[in-house]
Structures are given as C-alpha cells and as structure tokens.
Design a protein that fits this description.
36 strands; Toxin - Anthrax Protective Antigen, domain 1; alpha/beta; 823 residues; Rossmann fold; 25% strand; 6-stranded mixed sheet; TIM Barrel
Length: 823
C-alpha cells in the first residue's frame, strides 16, 4: 500500500466559502448548481467566483473544444494503464494529464472510471481498470494522486455499478448489499480514504429502485462512511429530479443551463418543497471546489502555480504502452528453437505485417473518451522506421461494417455561418466528424445558423464509392455541383446523441477512377435537442471506398507470410464493437480476421498475433500461433511501442481481467435488462477470477494476472510476519526483465459465510525489475479488509472465520509459494 501525499485544504477555505456564500442570492445559488454550458460552471463575480471548466479525461484531456484544431495527447486506454500493475507509473500518467488540463485551461477531469469489468460484453470495458476491486482501487488512487498533486481536480465515476451500456439511462441494477460493499463500492471507498478526490460523478442507472443522482442512501455511504468531502456532478443528462437530487447531495447537474436545477430549484425553495439551507449545502461544495482549483478570489489554490509540462510526452506514452502490453503466449515454432519473440533487429529477415489495423491504427475506444491526437503512429509506421524494407505489408481482410467518417483521401474544413449570413474562418478537419458539443466556435448558439463542411476528395481506388451523412438535423450534400441529398435526419430511441455516435446513412453511390477528384460541400443545420441537452452541432460526412475482393486479400497475405521469416498479424475490434453507448453482442473479432490468422499460421510457423482490442476477444486460433501479444488501445505512440517490444523491449503488462476462451465459458455475461428494466446481479460477489476459481471446471484462455516476460523468474520464498508478506524472486534468465509479484489470500474452504466466500482474493502486488541472476525482495502489507466480508444481517464488516493462507506467484492460477497468515 502506498502512503500518498495529497494536497491539503488551506485553513482559510471554510471562512472564504462562507463569505462567498453570504454574497449570493437564491437564484444565483440555484444557477451555480445548473452549469453554464456543456463543460463550464456558472460564475458569480459578486462573490469572487469564476467559471470552472471540466473535461472528459480518462484517455486524454479533450478540453472545451472537440476538434482537430485543438488536439489532445491520446494515452493508452485505462485497461492498458492498469495492466502495468504499477501505481508509480500511473501517478506519472496523472501528472501528464494534469499538465494537459492546465494547457487547455481545464480545472477538473471527469475521470477516472472505476466501475468493474463485470461482463466481457460491457461496451466501455476499455475505459475501466479491472475486474478486481482492490486492483481498481490501487490504480485509481495513483491516478487521482497524480492529477490532484498538480492542482487539477478529479471525479471518480460512475457512482455506482454503471458496468454496462444497454438501456443505461433507465436500467435498474438490482444488487445485494454485500455485493455492493465488497465489489462495486470498494474502489470508491479506497480512493476516498487514500487520496481525497475532489469530485464524484453519479451515474445514469438506478440501483435497487433509486436513480443514482437522487440516491440519498448511497451518497450518505460515500460522504458519511467513506469520508468523501468533494462535489457531486451528474453524468451528462442523468439528473431527472429537482428536490430529490438536491437533497440527496447532487451538487452540479450537467450539462447546463437547462437542467433540473437553476430556476426549477429556486422555485422549489419558494414553494416550500425544499429549503434554502439544503441548497446552501450543495453550493458550499461547489465553492470549496473553486477554492481548491484557484477559482475563488481571496484564497490560494490547494496547489500553487501551474502543473509542470512534461519534457517529452511521447517518450512517456511509449513507456506506458510498453508496460501495458501483455505477452500472453511466446512459444518456439513447431520446428523447435527459441521462443518466437523477441525478434533480433540485426538478424531478423523479412517480416510480413498483416491486417487493416497494422496500417490504420486503432488507438482509442469510442464515445466520450475519444480525443483528436496530434499524430498517430501505426504498427506499420513503427516497424518500418526500424526495419525499413524488411517489412512487407498486406491488408489481409476488409473490416468494413458500416459507412464511416470520411478519412483517407479527403481534405476538409468546416466553418460556422451565423443566421445573418456572417461566415467565420474555416478550421481543418482530421476526418469527416464535426463535434461542437455545447458550443459553436466564434459565436453563441443563438447566433448560429448552420455549418459548412467542404473540401475535396481524391479517390484512392477505382470503383463504386459510397457517400453519406449522419447527425440530428437538416443536411444538404452537394458533390461536384450536384445536390445528392437535401432533407432532415431524425434520431430514434432515448438517446439524442444516437444520431451522431450511431451509424451514418448512405446518400449516394458514385463510380470513380483512381486519382479522380471530387469537390464536396455539406451544409448542416441542427435541430434543437430535447430538454436538458445544450445546443450542439454534431454531424459528419461519411464515406466508404470500393470494397476489395476479400478472398484475394487473404491469399495475398498468406503469400506474404509464406515468403517472410516472421509473420505479425494485427487483429482488432472496430468503433462499432467497443464504444460508449452500446454493449457488445459477442466476443468474436469482426469480419474474417479469425480465418486470416488461421491461414497465415498455416503458412508460417513463426506467426505472432497482436491483439489490438480494449477487452477480451475469442481466439480460436490460439493453439496454432507461436506468439500472442495483447496491446489494448495503445494511444498515439502505440506503433512505436509495439515495434520496440517486438524487437526486444520488455513487455511489462499483466492481465487485469480473466480472458475466456469463448463467451459461453464466461461466468457472467448478462448486460441486457429484463422486461421490467431490471438487471439482476445474481452472481453476487462471484465475478471475474473469483467465479472462475469457484467453478473450477472450465479453464479460461488466460488467467487474471497472467503475462510472460522475455526472461525467466523463480519464486523462491514467502515469509509472513503479522500483516506483512515478504516475497523473494530471482531473475534466472539471460536478460534484464520485469515481473509483477502478486499476493492472494485464501480463506478456510469450510468458512461459514452467508452466500459463500471466494477461493482467493488479491491482497497485494508489486512490480519488480532485475538483471540476470539478481534476487529481489518485495514487502507487501495486507489490510484488514482483505480478511473481511460484509454481513448483511449486522450491516457491518466481519472477519471471515477460520485459518487463512497467503499465496504468492505470477497470476491467480500460478501461486507456488504459500504460508499461513493470521486474520
């Protein structure tokens, strides 16, 4: 456990908050709780309060403007960050994000996500850390500490049990109290106790019949029992009740200004449905946040000065990626010899690099966590930079699923046009997506009339090209002077962002020669969003190239693999597979990627598969390939990091979630509510490795904690004294390496616990590095909670009776060292 040093509140904060509060009238107080717009809070100059800016931030700090004109560093996904099992590294991630936040004038990051990997089908699986609450809590502590020690606030999210996306606005998650306490509340408890986060975000979903933005009981647990004293912000559009939410402790209903607070809350006070004293309690927490981040006159921020810029952020991004990559398999080819990885950069001959994601890198998951990075290094870029013409690329398959945002071959700009005809300067676009969420560049939403996206397309291939649009509003698409579409596009369902984040709509097909140039203009006027959503301009120009002969692509890849010394196949999911807004239907790789891998492996025994996904996928070909490297969504420097690891840099990651061989093997899969809108967590505390170990009859593809090294490790001894475990390990290989020492506790199998007890629990871990022949000792402290369960009858923590055993090793199913430990 780490004793974090976190910014302390200054003694004068309480007096400053009360002085500011006394200068505010009821209407202003109510407005402060409603938000100014999509990303900003309301200012109150009479009280010395400036507006504060919040921003999505799990993977990169987007800032107020979601545009390629204002790029953001794209980090490896949160699951990748956690796969490092390295709180010290994650703290540096926090420092980097804080520097990015300050660069973009952001006061608070809407991160980290500390929900759990309950089901592998969860659409935002990539945005959360782990299936284990203890690992999630430890990584989140480091994340929050790293951000807040630089003076930028954080918000733990999504409180609580927002573990799936299906019907997320309305689902009622039915969860037993023990399960809530031991699993889903545990990371929030750990972070609140360890690093004093300045914020929490309450979720869309309900828990046991009460929507989370108005869940008084669970907010009292967070504030009263866990000691949380920060502000509580709703997820965007989640607040549905005025009095109930305010009195339950919701302090900021976002996005503003059209929320359940503001004038609705002021009216409720005047009508006697709530009290001004209750409103004051909410406002005090907003003012305390302002004091902490330096937005309140008369007091110094919790951290003086601005976050220090990172000298070489790309180098840090590569380090994070390398330490996240999990070497899941590394065998010698069927003919014998050394393990397939690493490749010797001096001796390696030709490398066949295969797969659409090898060229068009998949570095981010979909939804609110996405950013526009300043650059992206693909696997093809990274490996070619190091091996030159020894790299031979083949596409292999076609991952086309639906028409997608215009990209390769397009040169596009977009500009806003006012209702009076005034046109503002155009800004360049990285692709066909325009995402002005809650703002319009250079004018107010009331002044805005429509947007003009225009530019040209140089056909990259001959054949039939498909052009389309998406977005909630009126579209007028003109190609080479011909109007091909001039009509409205509505959305269906409960989520108005569906019309943007969802698929595009085909508008026309045009046959083109390679190199042929088209002039394109798309005019877009948005409709008003429903109440509670601020004015936004969300639309896109969509395009699909002529589809290739996929069988020919596979044959070309097989020929390249057969002629190469090594074949590296990069497989991936797509934006329509892993994203906010929907859950997955299965764990299969999209398209014919499984067939491609099997064919390549049959042609070359030295085949390595790079799995570029944010969450588990089925790998029916796992037994036929020599190597499997899991790279997650690796961020903008992922291609460079991949090349470094393939050519000898240590892959430092370990799994934070158990990977099933098939979806049918997974112990928990349900993400769809029943007809009554309820999602029952009937599995109780048995998710992830807890469920796999308890069942004991089915082997997963890879266990929680699994990950190989380029060296060999011997686990030599485990000694326990009190609540400390000392583990000695030795690098018995020929190169310097890294390992993660993991400590688990097992209770007496006969322990009498209502509902049963898990066979093992993660209780500690430490990353170690050592040179050839070197021995390293780690000391792991075990806290009381590792021995306890929540007794629902007593409504209290109780120690599991009986003898306990400490077990140390390299993953939850490889624990060669054991020792007795007293509870």
């Amino acid at each position: 456990m780490t004793d974090w040093t976190v910014p302390a509140d200054r003694p004068e904060y309480d007096d400053a908050v009360e002085a500011a509060l006394a200068k505010l009238d009821l209407d202003t107080k109510a407005d402060l709780l409603a938000g100014l717009d999509m990303w900003r809070t309301v200012a109150a100059p009479e009280a010395g309060l400036r507006s504060m800016t919040v921003s999505d931030g799990p993977i990169g700090v987007r800032g107020r403007f979601w545009t390629a004109a204002d790029p953001s560093l794209a980090l490896p996904s949160p699951t990748a960050q956690a796969a490092s099992w390295d709180p010290a590294l994650v703290r540096r991630i926090g420092n980097l994000l804080a520097a990015e936040a300050r660069r973009k004038d952001v006061d608070v990051l809407l991160a980290p996500t500390i929900n759990l990997h309950r089901s592998p089908l969860g659409g935002r699986h990539f945005e959360a850390f782990s299936e284990d609450p203890y690992l999630t809590g430890r990584i989140a502590e480091a994340y929050v500490a790293g951000v807040q020690e630089q003076g930028v606030g954080t918000t733990m999210k999504h409180y609580v049990a927002n573990d799936a996306e299906t019907d997320r606005f309305t689902v009622d998650n039915v969860i037993g109290e023990r399960t809530l306490r031991e699993l889903y509340l545990r990371p929030f408890e750990m972070v609140a106790a360890a690093v004093n986060p300045w914020g929490v975000m309450t979720a869309y979903n309900s828990v046991n019949g009460t929507t989370m933005t108005a869940h008084r009981e669970l907010m009292e647990v967070l504030r009263g029992e866990f000691g949380f004293d920060g502000f509580n912000v709703s997820d965007w559009g989640a607040a549905r009740h005025t009095v109930e939410a305010a009195e339950a402790g919701l302090d900021l209903a976002m996005p503003g200004p059209f929320t359940v607070f503001g004038r609705h809350l002021a009216d409720a006070v005047r009508e006697g449905r709530t009290t001004e004293a209750a409103v004051d309690a909410n406002v005090r927490r907003i003012l305390k946040l302002a004091a902490r981040v330096g937005a309140l006159d008369g007091v110094e921020a919790a951290v003086a000065g601005r976050a220090a810029a990172i000298a070489d952020p790309d180098a840090l991004l590569r380090e994070i990626a390398r330490r996240s990559f999990v070497l899941a398999k590394n065998d010698a080819p069927a003919g014998g010899g050394a393990a397939v990885l690493p490749l010797d950069p001096d001796a390696t001959g030709t490398v066949a690099l295969i797969g659409p994601a090898a060229r068009d890198a998949r570095v981010l998951g979909g939804g609110s966590a996405t950013v526009f990075p300043p650059h992206v290094v693909s696997p093809l870029d990274g490996l070619t930079a190091r091996l030159g013409d020894r790299v031979v690329y083949a596409q292999g398959v076609d991952l086309f699923e639906q028409i997608e945002a215009a990209g390769r071959g397009f040169e596009l700009t977009v500009r806003p046009v006012a209702k009076d005809g005034t046109e503002l300067p155009a800004e360049p676009l990285a692709n066909g997506d325009v995402k002005w969420m809650g703002y319009v560049p250079g004018m107010t939403p009331d002044e805005f009339g429509h947007a003009v996206l225009e530019g040209r397309y140089t056909a990259t291939k001959a054949g039939e090209h498909v052009f389309g649009t998406r977005g909630y509003g009126h579209h007028r698409l003109v190609i080479d002077g011909e109007v091909v579409f001039d009509d409205d596009h509505q959305y269906a369902g409960d989520d108005p962002f569906e019309a943007f984040f969802g698929p595009g709509v085909e508008r026309t097909r045009i046959r083109l020669d390679a190199g042929q140039v088209l002039q394109i203009r798309l005019e877009f006027a948005p409709f008003d969003f429903p109440p509670g959503f601020p004015p936004s301009v969300l639309f896109g120009l969509m395009h699909t190239e002529p589809r290739p002969d996929e069988q020919a692509l596979i044959e070309e890849a097989v020929a390249a693999a057969r002629a190469a010394d090594t074949a590296v196949v990069v497989v991936s999911t797509t934006a329509l597979t892993e994203s906010e807004g929907f859950d997955r239907r299965d764990l299969r790789l999209p398209g014919r990627q499984d067939e491609l891998v099997a064919a390549v492996a049959a042609a070359n025994p030295n085949t390595v598969v790079v799995v570029n996904t944010g969450s588990p996928v089925e790998m029916p070909w796992a037994g036929a390939v020599a190597g499997i490297l899991l790279t997650w969504f690796p961020g903008q420097e992922g291609g460079n990091a991949l090349a470094e690891v393939l050519l000898g840099a240590e892959p430092g990651g370990r799994l934070t979630t158990t990977w099933p061989k098939t979806l049918a093997d997974a112990p928990v899969t349900q993400v769809v509510p029943d007809e009554a809108g309820r999602l029952h967590y009937d599995e109780g505390v048995f998710i992830g490795y807890r469920a796999w170990q308890r069942r004991g009859t089915v082997e997963p593809a890879f266990w929680f904690g699994h990950g190989l090294s380029y060296t060999e490790w011997a686990y030599e001894s485990l000694e326990v004294a009190g609540r400390e475990a000392r583990v000695r390990v030795r690098n018995t290989g020929a190169v310097t390496g890294r390992d993660v020492v993991q400590l688990y506790l097992s209770p007496d199998p006969a322990a009498d616990v209502p509902g049963g007890i898990e066979p093992v629990r993660l209780a500690g871990f430490a990353a170690v590095e050592a040179g050839p022949g070197e021995e390293v000792e780690v000391v792991l402290a075990v806290d009381d909670r590792a021995f306890q369960y929540w007794n629902e009858e007593d409504r209290a923590w109780r120690t599991v009776p009986g003898a306990w055993t400490a077990k140390a090793g390299r993953n939850v199913n490889d624990l060669p060292l054991t020792a007795a430990i007293e509870a």
